Amino acid sequence: MVLKDKVAVITGAATGLGFVTAELFFHEGAHVVGTFHKKFDKKKIGNAFGDSERMWYIQTDITSIDQIKHFAAEVGKRFERVDVLVNNAAVDTSGNIEDTSEDEFRRIMDVNVYGMFLVTKYIIPLMKKGKKGGSIINVTSSIGLVGMANRLAYTTSKGAVVNFTRSMAMDYVDDCIRVNAIAPGGMLTEMVDEFFKRHASEEFKQEICKMHVMNRLADPMEIAKPILFLASDDSTYANGAIFSADGGYTCGK
Q1: CA distance 158 to 184
Q2: What are phi and psi of 38, to 5 degrees?
């Protein structure tokens, strides 16, 4: 178990990639603290973790300073330190600059960038408190690296995550805190399903699949496993890296 007795915080851990990552970390021995905003399937969570004290979900709005301060304080009371942080929580949208309202652009940036900033800002002291450093993994996207038409707000937010990661890697190297990002391609998650429903076209979904060299979307576990690698001591020389797990999307085709 590569994360045995590690304390890991995962945002957006009740659904999609966050849930699968939480499940994987749990089975690798970690004490996992997961945040969720609104969606929480008690039956699904119970089936995955039972009533184990190693899995703890807290409802938190990551864009609220007060709620994040409270969240970090509660984690500190229970564990006194954090070893791993996975900044996964995100929201999506579509549209070019003319189609995207000011409120929608702000919503995407608030969750995908500002929320990541807040969580990291208030969890970092708990990582430093542990005296052994830690690992932060930020979830960006393949389209945060190369862009995509009609996805202005989401692409902008995920591009910001890339340099957020690189800057933090330089700032915290002396604290032995490694900061890396993972850039997935398309995944079969609830958020992606909702995106395709808005377009209501099987042909459009196939077009997205064909943009990937492997001609398919990823199972979330195919992304969770590289996140586990970056969280573990198997990746101690990885810092400031943007790890693409995108089925060849960024190769061009």
Answers
A1: 11
A2: -125, -45
Q: In this predicted model, what pLDDT tens digit does every residue of 59-102 receive, in sequence order?
A: 999 999 999 999 999 999 999 999 999 999 999 998 999 999 99
pTM: 0.94
- List strands edge to edge, sheet with 31-36: 55-59, 31-36, 7-10, 84-87, 134-139, 177-184, 242-245
Q: Say yes or no: domain 7-246 is CATH 3.40.50.720.
A: yes
Closest CA to 225 of 2, 55, 11: 2
- Summarised one tens digit per residue, pLDDT across range 107-138 is 999 999 999 999 999 999 999 997 789 999 99
Q: How far apart are CA 176 and CA 173, in angstroms?
A: 5
CB distance 196 to 204 below 8 Å:
yes
249 an active-site residue? no
Choosing from 57, 122, 154, 249, the catalytic residue is 154
